[in-house]
TrEMBL record:
<dbReference type="Pfam" id="PF05825">
    <property type="entry name" value="PSP94"/>
</dbReference>
<dbReference type="GO" id="GO:0005576">
    <property type="term" value="C:extracellular region"/>
</dbReference>
<feature type="signal peptide">
    <location>
        <begin position="1"/>
        <end position="19"/>
    </location>
</feature>
<keyword id="KW-0964">Secreted</keyword>
<protein>
    <recommendedName>
        <fullName>Beta-microseminoprotein</fullName>
    </recommendedName>
</protein>
<keyword id="KW-0732">Signal</keyword>
<comment type="similarity">
    <text>Belongs to the beta-microseminoprotein family.</text>
</comment>
<dbReference type="InterPro" id="IPR008735">
    <property type="entry name" value="PSP94"/>
</dbReference>
<keyword id="KW-1015">Disulfide bond</keyword>
Length: 103
Protein backbone atom coordinates (compact mmCIF):
# COMPACT_ATOMS: atom_id res chain seq x y z
CA UNK A 1 0.00 0.00 0.00
CA UNK A 2 0.88 3.66 0.21
CA UNK A 3 2.44 3.44 3.68
CA UNK A 4 5.31 1.28 2.44
CA UNK A 5 6.05 3.76 -0.35
CA UNK A 6 6.09 6.66 2.11
CA UNK A 7 8.61 4.84 4.31
CA UNK A 8 10.89 4.16 1.33
CA UNK A 9 10.72 7.81 0.28
CA UNK A 10 11.53 8.91 3.82
CA UNK A 11 14.70 6.83 3.90
CA UNK A 12 15.69 7.88 0.38
CA UNK A 13 16.05 11.44 1.70
CA UNK A 14 18.83 10.40 4.08
CA UNK A 15 22.23 9.85 2.46
CA UNK A 16 24.03 6.74 3.70
CA UNK A 17 26.81 8.96 5.05
CA UNK A 18 24.39 10.03 7.76
CA UNK A 19 24.66 6.65 9.43
CA UNK A 20 22.08 4.13 10.42
CA UNK A 21 18.35 4.76 10.53
CA UNK A 22 15.90 2.76 12.56
CA UNK A 23 12.23 2.71 13.41
CA UNK A 24 10.82 2.28 16.89
CA UNK A 25 7.19 1.15 16.48
CA UNK A 26 4.68 2.41 19.01
CA UNK A 27 1.51 0.97 20.48
CA UNK A 28 -1.43 1.32 18.04
CA UNK A 29 -3.63 3.01 20.65
CA UNK A 30 -1.16 5.91 21.01
CA UNK A 31 -1.93 8.12 18.03
CA UNK A 32 -0.86 11.72 18.58
CA UNK A 33 2.50 11.46 20.40
CA UNK A 34 5.80 9.58 20.26
CA UNK A 35 8.30 8.97 23.05
CA UNK A 36 12.03 9.27 22.43
CA UNK A 37 13.54 5.97 23.60
CA UNK A 38 16.79 7.68 24.66
CA UNK A 39 15.57 10.85 26.38
CA UNK A 40 12.07 9.66 27.39
CA UNK A 41 10.74 12.96 26.02
CA UNK A 42 7.40 13.19 24.23
CA UNK A 43 6.89 14.63 20.76
CA UNK A 44 3.78 15.44 18.76
CA UNK A 45 2.98 13.63 15.51
CA UNK A 46 4.93 14.92 12.46
CA UNK A 47 7.54 16.83 14.49
CA UNK A 48 11.32 16.51 14.30
CA UNK A 49 13.98 16.74 17.00
CA UNK A 50 17.58 15.80 17.79
CA UNK A 51 18.04 13.76 20.94
CA UNK A 52 20.96 13.60 23.38
CA UNK A 53 22.50 10.70 21.43
CA UNK A 54 22.74 13.06 18.43
CA UNK A 55 20.16 11.24 16.39
CA UNK A 56 17.73 13.13 14.18
CA UNK A 57 14.29 11.74 14.94
CA UNK A 58 10.75 12.25 13.72
CA UNK A 59 7.38 11.22 15.10
CA UNK A 60 5.41 9.30 12.48
CA UNK A 61 1.99 7.60 12.67
CA UNK A 62 3.74 4.21 13.02
CA UNK A 63 6.25 5.34 15.64
CA UNK A 64 9.60 7.07 15.98
CA UNK A 65 12.10 7.12 13.10
CA UNK A 66 15.69 8.07 14.03
CA UNK A 67 18.86 8.45 11.98
CA UNK A 68 22.31 8.76 13.48
CA UNK A 69 24.54 11.64 12.41
CA UNK A 70 27.88 11.25 10.56
CA UNK A 71 30.61 9.61 12.62
CA UNK A 72 33.00 12.57 12.25
CA UNK A 73 30.79 14.78 14.39
CA UNK A 74 31.03 15.57 18.08
CA UNK A 75 28.57 16.96 20.56
CA UNK A 76 29.49 20.24 22.21
CA UNK A 77 27.67 20.95 25.44
CA UNK A 78 27.09 24.53 26.52
CA UNK A 79 26.81 24.46 30.30
CA UNK A 80 25.77 28.10 30.44
CA UNK A 81 22.63 27.66 28.34
CA UNK A 82 22.18 23.91 29.02
CA UNK A 83 22.04 23.18 25.32
CA UNK A 84 24.23 21.21 22.95
CA UNK A 85 25.05 21.32 19.27
CA UNK A 86 26.62 18.86 16.90
CA UNK A 87 29.82 20.03 15.24
CA UNK A 88 32.51 18.66 12.95
CA UNK A 89 35.24 17.12 15.11
CA UNK A 90 37.97 18.39 12.77
CA UNK A 91 36.78 22.00 12.92
CA UNK A 92 34.76 22.37 16.13
CA UNK A 93 33.44 25.79 15.14
CA UNK A 94 31.73 24.34 12.06
CA UNK A 95 28.13 23.19 12.60
CA UNK A 96 27.45 19.72 11.26
CA UNK A 97 25.34 19.29 8.14
CA UNK A 98 22.45 16.94 8.76
CA UNK A 99 19.45 15.83 6.77
CA UNK A 100 16.24 17.77 7.22
CA UNK A 101 13.04 16.22 5.96
CA UNK A 102 10.55 18.56 4.33
CA UNK A 103 6.89 18.28 5.20
Amino acid sequence: GMSGTAVLLLFALFPLAHGACFNNPKAPEIKEVCQDSEDKTYHVLNTYWRNSKCMDCSCRPYGVSCCSIPADCDVEYNNRTCTFEVVKSIKPSTPCPFAVIGE
